[in-house]
């Protein structure tokens, strides 16, 4: 009788464990993150010594997000990254808006810092104010050169 106890337990355990297999769709049982998206609207042309309205439409699942914890625009000139202008945006019923001043011509970065519904996104754009100097144009080229350099190693 003892001779069949151990093999019987092994067979019974195998049958019981196979019934407890992992559901292949188990990830669907957990809350799925719903990413934020932002559509930043910038002026077509920006003149030096001007104040511009910056706007961003924040969305999640194709619906407008009107309850963001914070939305800020951070603006700085490429050659002066230590001088960051921070403008808190306010919701106007359809978008978040803020004003930023562009003192002189050159290349600027505009980073939109958005905190909403437990997510944090930072879309960043590069804009040109007025005419670019030769030095500004050269500062745009390293990205292209870097890409080219990257390919030369392959």
What can you see in these coordinates?
By secondary structure, this protein is α+β, with helices and mostly antiparallel strands. About 25% of the residues lie in helices and about 40% in strands. The chain contains 2 helices and 10 strands, in the order H-E-E-E-E-E-E-E-E-E-E-H. Strands 1, 2, 3, 6 and 7 form a 5-stranded antiparallel β-sheet that branches. Strands 4, 5, 8, 9 and 10 form a 5-stranded antiparallel β-sheet that branches. A hairpin with a 2-residue loop joins strand 2 and strand 3 (about 65). The longest helix has 19 residues, at about 135-150. The radius of gyration is 27 Å and the shape is elongated. The chain starts with a helix and ends with a helix. About 15% of the residues are buried.
SSE order? HEEEEEEEEEEH
Q: Per the principal axes of the C-alpha atoms, what is the gross shape? A: elongated
Structural class: alpha+beta
Distance between the termini: 70 Å
**Helix segment count?**
2
Taking the sheet with the most strands, its summary is: 5 strands, antiparallel
Q: What is the helix content?
A: 10-25%
If you average the pLDDT, what whole number results?
83
Strand content: 35-45%
Overall number of strands: 10
Spatial extent as radius of gyration: 27 Å
Low-confidence stretches: 142-154
